[in-house]
Amino acid sequence: MNKWVKSSLFVAILSLAVLLVTACGEKEELQKVKVGEVTRSIFYAPQYVAITQGFFEEEGLDIELSTVAGGDKTMTALLSDGIDIALVGSETSIYVTAQGANDPIKNFAQLTQTDGTFLVSREKIEDFSWDMLKGTTFLGQRKGGMPQMAGEFVLKKHGIDPHADLELIQNIDFANISTAFASGTGDFVQLFEPTASVFEAEGKGHIVASFGTESGHLPYTVFMAKDSFMNDNPETIEKFTRALKKAQDFVYESSAEEVAKAIQPFFEETEVELIATVVERYREQESYAKDPILDEEEWNNLQDIMEEAGELPKRMDYNELVDTTFAEKVLK
């Protein structure tokens, strides 16, 4: 091998090494963002799409996702810097602010815009009407949580007093509600997907109505962060919101099957066909927000529902707890 060939080979190897180091360097430059979700749910499909389809990576973000069961635990993790961003019901920001948080919480990007639960009856009902719940046992959600408040709001809307016209059970942990119904507790139950569809497929229950359709648009599940984190990391929040918008577009522009396949890594024990059914049901009632903006009308509807349930500490100004700056930038 002559000197010229050796020299060329050396240069080629050196160039390849530089490229590899550069590539590794670029990968290492991804900013890690710790996100805590209140539960793992197909209801949060756009979030998982943003991860599996690489939308966060495209924005230079490395998402470290953890599931923190319960809104109170999720907010505790956020306040103690265990996570940077929380995905949880926006009512939690009201509770925390009412208690006098030193570092305000800001809702900056909306993920879901309706309640995500369905009314499931033990017996099959051909022509359902809400007054059929009177005199029955209703297995609801945890007191003070958004599912329960939305549920009570809908019952009252249809002339049913949830504390007088039926036997309301709401002291069972979220994780055990479906098990309790399956074991014989209650005539009706309020369930999230995919449990509602699984119960229907197995003959354990029958979906008769949607609380999401009945309660209207509200900021049901929102990404939020401490004011200090947002002030220190404005570019991160904007990149995060941009990735979310890409995912929201993907969810509405792709087939239900494509969305199901994209998020199945987060639901390995659930068949793609069932995931697709759930995705389509949520899309049909527009439960997935089509953009990250939390508008004032939705915010007021949320507080009306909380007030109706007797759970609103005090009315909070929209501009105090909501920051749409980043969502608006992304949409331009």
UniProtKB/TrEMBL annotation:
It comes from Ureibacillus yapensis. It is found in: Periplasm. It comes from the Bacteria. Belongs to the bacterial solute-binding protein SsuA/TauA family. Its main location: periplasm. Residues 1-23 form the signal peptide. Keywords: Signal. This is ABC transporter substrate-binding protein. The keyword Signal applies. The keyword ATP-binding does not apply. One of its GO terms (cellular component) is periplasmic space. Pfam families: NMT1_2 (PF13379). SUPFAM superfamilies: Periplasmic binding protein-like II (SSF53850).
